[in-house]
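Quick look at the format.
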Amino acid sequence: MLTDREIISTLEMLENENLDVRTVTLGINLLDCAGDDLDKVKNKVHGKISHFAENLVSVCDHIGQKYGIPVVNKRIAVSPIAVVGAALSSFQLTDIAKTLDDVAQEIGVDFIGGFSALVQKGIARGDRALIEAIPHALAATERVCASVNVASTKAGINMDAVLLMGKTIKQAAELTAEKDGLACAKLCVFANIPEDIPFMAGAYLGIGEGDAVINVGVSGPGVVKKAIDRALDSNPDLDLGQISELIKKTAYKVTRVGELIGREVAKNLNISFGVVDLSLAPTPNVGDSVGEIFQSLGLLSIGVPGTTAALALLNDAVKKGGAFASSRVGGLSGAFIPVSEDLNISEAVRNGYIGLDKLEAITSVCSVGLDMVAIPGDTSADNVAAIIADEMAIGVINNKTTAARLIPVPGKAAGDSAYFGGLLGQSTIISVNNGQGSNHFIRHGGSIPAPLQSLTN
């Protein structure tokens, strides 16, 4: 039970510190919609999503108003379309993406995820067709998000898939060149992808899930920053262990709010409640930044020496506090560092405090990886793939989820600005070492074998 003081503290978080439920994501199993007749598959997909999701937005709005806690985004995640549409061609799968986009618009959700494939051990026919469809599908839709899992600690890294994704990202960027490669902002490449992510662009519903489930993504970087600021103002001599304890307690309160809303939405929709994702997810708004937390901890900026240690402390404390607050923790859970979506991190890039190498280094302890990173448009497909491969290696060797959401901005160079709009924000383009030419290491193909720690049976 919360004390009166804790209740007042939570109300303060809602009023002045940008506390919200960042997303309620409805997962819908579409495996029973599979088939080789395009029209029948489209009708089944549209019908099943409409059946489960028709009241999602209104219920979230009602619950948010009831408790005074805004649900910022309402989203849908579906079974991997590479499985649902395994018998279809890449052109037909693009039509499926348009169906997903149409039904998402009708229902009123922000994004729909699950235009996805799992190829960590090999690429099947349906997987290859879906990956071929990704550039045109994302360019032709507004709300559809895609993800491809190319590596896992159990399987190693599928380097053929990594190279293919490098080419796919380049093509997607070129098809949306007039929007600074916007299609790439809706595409994540993963290692060790969880089956219950509520956050986009990685969200999809895992093969082992039921017919429908509600997963919640809480946030609150502004809340954590304010808590640290208040504590250090009253006692500047707090050590890092005490600060960690403070972050844990704050994460507990934030998570309880998310669980409350998620369970209430699930009850009203008569759908099972899934997990709470504890991730600190920023926005481009002032006061809602993960990057600002580093400054509250005493660093000049994210990216300077001490950044990796500070992020390790933050991530660990958030997970410990949130895990105690919720009976069902899942998704990614920790701290996101999406460059363009976090105003402070974007400024750190512009001011030269953080570059691609440091971003990659700190992904060894963060929740995701190289997220919303704009790179020069002339970066070759080989080198895009090589950046992905480096990030996948961090995930595989450390047995954690990592991802790459890279945007090679057509016609722009390092130091230029890229604009993606809305929650996707804007960013200065980061330089890439050896950004032109071929990469012969990547072109060897094959697989990088799973590490020894994969032998856990």
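Next, a different chain entirely:
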Amino acid sequence: MVEVNTRIFGRIAIEEEKVIRFDHGILGFPELKDFTLIYNEDKGSESSIKWLQSLQEPGFAMPVMNPELVVQGYSPKFNGDLLKPLGDNLDGENILLFITVTVPKDITKTTVNLRAPIIVSVENRKAVQLISEDETYSVKYAIYDKLMATKEVQA
């Protein structure tokens, strides 16, 4: 069990099997290697925004989401060698894919980074953040209107 006194969530206890390991860190923060995923337990996997909370730096938590919530058929392309840290079992059921969310003061300007997704192996909890070779994906893809339209349909 790992305990962290986070800036956003207060003191949390994380079971070892909930630790996600980035052997090479994440983009811009290579020294941050161990994270956990925090989300609204009432909504479970349906929670649209989750938080990737650093276990080394309690003040660092990054909002992430499933890319399929904003882009149907999202499938970034990577050099296969870059996925080796995840292990051999890379079928769809063993992989979680997340994109980072940027929420400015004006939430209508919220964007996601489709160009550099986070890929997590469910089997071994190893993760990488990679830059897609597919240049059609944007670093700042606006999502506010899409999320609002989805909420209206669900209401």
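Strands lie at 2-6, 10-14, 20-22, 34-38, 50-54, 61-65, 95-102, 111-121, 126-129, 141-142.

See the schema section for token definitions.
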